[in-house]
Amino acid sequence: MAALGAATTPAAAPAAPRGNNRHPRHRVAAPARRSRGGAPARRLELHASVSPAVTADAPDEAAAEPLVEPAPETKLSKLACPICYYPFVSASDPSGDASSLECSTCKKVYPNKQDYWDLTVAVGSTEYSESKPAATEIFRTPLVSFLYERGWRQNFIWGGFPGLEREFEMAKTYLNPTIGGTIVDASCGSGLFSRLFVKSGLYSLVVALDFSENMLKQCNEYVKQENISDERLALVRADISRLPFVNGSIDAVHAGAAIHCWPSPACAVAEISRVLRSGGIFVASTFVADVIPPAIPILRIARPYISQIGGNNTFLSEVELEDLCKACGLVDFKFVRSGFYIMFSATKAS
Ligand SMILES: C[S@@+](CC[C@H](N)C(=O)[O-])C[C@H]1O[C@@H](n2cnc3c(N)ncnc32)[C@H](O)[C@@H]1O
């Protein structure tokens, strides 16, 4: 593997400050807070090691009367309506096997599709169907989903990706301050990292999230094959630009090899910043394209057309990635580079 760490090594990020579970319109008491004293055993079991950011909010916030009765804590209670960002009312089935989730505010119902929860905005519409750019659509096919861990992903090594195990170790180093909390493996594909996060036991909840139905089905198959308990794992279909979580409710977001596939990296990073708590960490890897110096204006102008040819893939430079994170309130940018590969972390500003 090419030498990593040329620029910055994945040093520990600053200690996580307090959480920020404020909703745009009113406060929703985080269920985890209630589990601190005298909650039923099962709740404690699931969130026993929830990070300080979720559990250690100021007592006055916990005492504030919510307008929405929060659902009892299950792994589903971390999920929210992607339309209005309010929590669900029917996440109360203790087994986590509810057949649908209903938004506490707009009343939209989201189905349990057996392999995953479909929390896309358009789910349930009968006439409307939306096609995404090729870089998203290609991963929705059964063939690519099947091939993904059977050779496709391994090819990334030619672009400088260090390989799954090394990437996971590096990501863990960056994510260290968020251990014990909830991690979203955004654009998880067939769940190669999601499964490692669950197996590591480092997080109280792992949300494996992708837009591709077939990737999520494939992920579920691997979960079963590998006998991984789904007690701390939720599989969710959602668009990266419309994440189904309450503001400031997530400790960490990991996105392996994905930014270049997102239709709008800006909307996606803004969304990731919205759902992260203060001090929460975003770790991502992608292909970088600073072989095209962004300082040369003509090449900047040409980039969208080049991207169209490449199936709408958006290859950004490390300078652009840092700039985008900063513009979205994610600071303390650190990264490692190897060839066209970059892994970086950024922290949600307090
Ligand atoms: C190259 S794969 C990365 C999979 C995995 N994270 C990894 O490290 O190998 C890119 C993933 O991004 C997902 N994706 C593309 N557009 C998306 C979107 N708009 N919202 C959520 N996921 C998306 C694809 O479905 C695909 O699974």
From TrEMBL:
It holds the Pfam family Methyltransf_11. GO terms for cellular component: plastoglobule. CDD domains: AdoMet_MTases (cd02440). It is found in: Plastid, Chloroplast, Plastoglobule. Residues 184-283 form the Methyltransferase type domain. Residues 1-17 have a biased composition (Low complexity). One of its GO terms (biological process) is methylation. Residues 20-36 have a biased composition (Basic residues). SUPFAM superfamilies: S-adenosyl-L-methionine-dependent methyltransferases. Keywords: Chloroplast, Methyltransferase, Plastid, Transferase, Transit peptide. Residues 1-42 are annotated as: Disordered. GO terms for molecular function: methyltransferase activity; S-adenosylmethionine-dependent methyltransferase activity. This is Methyltransferase type 11 domain-containing protein. The lineage of its organism: Eukaryota, Viridiplantae, Streptophyta, Embryophyta, Tracheophyta. The gene is LOC101758012.
